[in-house]
Design a protein that fits this description.
By secondary structure, the chain is of the alpha+beta class. Helices cover 30% and strands 22% of the residues.
């Protein structure tokens, strides 16, 4: 390992040379208070920035082991340090240095941007090495690498430089959320919304909490209030949503979809102050919607759609341009294959003909001419036969009240339990529609994916383009309707998973679910670093992703090949 003087001397030597000479500084350097690893040097000033790491020993960083004694605390501490480092970077923006770290959202995810171990703390960064045109600015580079970066590390990676109480609160809050989620099922719940939660967001393009006089805090109806004892916070009370079928009703703009959106994000932990810290959902929950135009390959949608005109099979349904109803059916059966225990549905983003056929339409269009089995006729079976709960937002069809175990009404964002009233209405106004169930609901069989679907040649590339698109070779994989994919770092992880997927498929007899579950387990055991392969570049911009989103992305690949057993 070279010292700081060697690096300064090397930068002085290449000052004014062509940009390619920066490659000579790759290596490991002792900067005094920390170590600098220059892993990858960009090819020119306009290429993606260079990849570096800063490492400080725990003898100097001195974070108490109590703060990272288990996996969830470790993730929480790394999240806090990433946010602290980003704040320090933003404070230095006027110095015209390009320094980047993977940006965090409101959710707390296991990330590769910061790593805390018993021996060291390590930050993974991207930096733009200074240039004038295509000529190296060696002195400015020395200022960046030898002075600016160590200062940032001193401010954001050393325990004594940070607010100890805020770190402790951050770590304990995340640990309590994880604990709360793990205790839902033992109380017969599939979700919990803590009293005082702030569910509304600042705007349609901001996930920060709404902070104005119109903001309404959430409080549980008395009949649904549940108490938990958390390891750090102690007692917490809020609304427990029981397993089964829950229907959320209310007028337009009264908070129905806002509540469902919070439950959708409740599969993740949130930072203190987000407002949704104590909104937790079953970790396998999947938001279902219609998705016109998506590709479906080899999906068994026969529980919801059968007897299509022209004799097209629906037990091995394939379409490059699925309709609203067929896409929503495919989304449900794919979620079942991925092991969901909770389905979340909003009528606003659903296909109407998939959700219900009322009595008048049944009278006009005979069942033998209608291939769709509406969701309303399967929602009860999903729970009684497969133990899959549903939370559905419904403002337009009272027929769903007859299927509900729990009915929650939102009025001005304030919830009330109206199950008894709903049942009285059902008895007073009995439905005239007939259930349209051609056959009992069956479990979903796992599918086999052919590994050649994701074959890559030596020059083929795979990469994320923001949160919503992965480029696989030249084929776009569109993920814009995966509403629980919350950050582009997760999309980058999925892109990396696609590269290694064929090997895992071959090990698991080509069964998609088994292959993805093994990948997720390997990441859990060995870290997200396994997705970096042998590129020699640190994976500083990846984040954990659930198997539900991994499988959903794979299912949308238009070149997917599925073996029909």
């Amino acid at each position: 390992m070279s010292d700081i003087n060697v690096l300064k001397k090397e930068l002085t030597r290449i000052d004014g040379k062509g940009y390619g000479a920066y490659k000579d500084i790759r290596g490991r350097y002792d900067l005094g208070g920390c170590e600098l690893f220059i892993d990858h040097v960009q090819s020119d000033p306009f290429a993606p920035p260079s990849k570096i790491r800063l490492r400080i020993s725990q003898k100097k960083a001195a974070f108490p082991e109590e703060l990272f004694k288990n996996s969830i605390r470790k993730t929480a501490l790394e999240d806090y340090l990433s946010r602290a480092f980003i704040r320090e970077i933003n404070r230095e923006k006027d110095k015209n240095f390009r320094i980047e770290m993977d940006v965090c959202g409101q959710e707390v995810l296991q990330r590769t941007s910061m790593q805390v171990h018993s021996e060291q703390v390590e930050a993974r960064l991207a930096v733009g090495l200074p240039a004038k045109g295509r000529r190296i600015m060696g002195r400015q580079a020395a200022d960046l690498l030898c002075r600016e970066l160590p200062l940032l590390a001193e401010r954001a990676m050393i325990y004594a430089s940070l607010d100890a109480e805020k770190i402790k609160s951050h770590v304990q809050t995340i640990e309590d959320q994880e604990y709360l989620r793990s205790r839902l099922r033992e109380k017969g719940l599939i979700a919990f919304v803590g009293n005082g939660a702030m569910l509304a967001r600042a705007s349609g393009v901001s996930d920060r909490p709404l902070e104005n006089e119109n903001a309404v805090s959430f409080y549980s109806p008395p009949e649904m209030e549940t108490k938990f004892e958390l390891p750090n916070r102690g007692n917490i009370r809020g609304m427990g949503i029981p397993a089964g079928v829950t229907v959320i009703v209310g007028g337009g703009y009264h908070g129905k979809s806002t509540l469902l959106k919070a439950l959708e994000r409740g599969v993740y932990n949130h930072i203190p102050g987000d407002g949704r810290e104590w909104v937790v959902s079953d970790k396998s929950a999947v938001k279902i919607r219609a998705e016109d135009g998506r590709a479906v390959t080899g999906g068994d949608i026969s529980p919801f759609i059968n007897s299509l005109p022209g004799g097209q099979s629906t037990d091995f349904f394939t379409s490059s341009n699925a309709s609203g109803s067929t896409s929503q059916a495919a989304n449900i059966v794919e979620a079942l294959e991925a092991g969901t225990g909770l389905i979340l549905v909003d009528e606003d983003t659903s296909a109407t003909n998939f959700m219900i056929r009322d009595s008048r339409m049944q009278a006009l269009v005979a069942k033998e001419n209608e291939p769709i089995t509406p969701f309303i006729d399967r929602i009860r079976e999903l729970y009684t036969e497969l133990e899959i709960s549903t939370v559905v937002v419904m403002g337009g069809s009272g027929d769903y009240l007859g299927e509900a175990d729990t009915v929650i009404m939102l009025k001005n964002y304030i919830p009330s339990l109206v199950t008894a009233t709903a049942r009285e209405i059902v008895e007073k106004y009995p439905q005239e529609r007939k259930a349209e169930i051609p056959a009992p609901l069956k479990s979903v069989s796992p599918r086999r994916i052919m590994p050649e679907s994701f074959h890559l040649g030596p020059k083929d590339k795979v990469g994320a383009k923001g949160r919503q698109i992965i480029r696989f070779k030249k084929q776009p994989l569109e993920l814009n309707f995966l509403e629980q994919l919350v950050h582009e770092s997760q999309t980058r992880s999925i892109a990396a998973i696609l590269k290694i997927l064929p090997a895992y498929l071959q090990k698991n007899d080509n069964f998609l679910r088994d292959a993805v579950e093994e990948i997720v387990e390997d990441i859990y055991q060995n870290g997200l670093e396994i997705l970096a392969g042998n590129t020699g570049r640190h994976p500083g911009n990846m984040a954990e992703v659930r198997k539900q989103e991994i499988m959903a992305a794979i299912n949308r690949f238009r070149k997917l090949k599925v073996k029909q057993d």
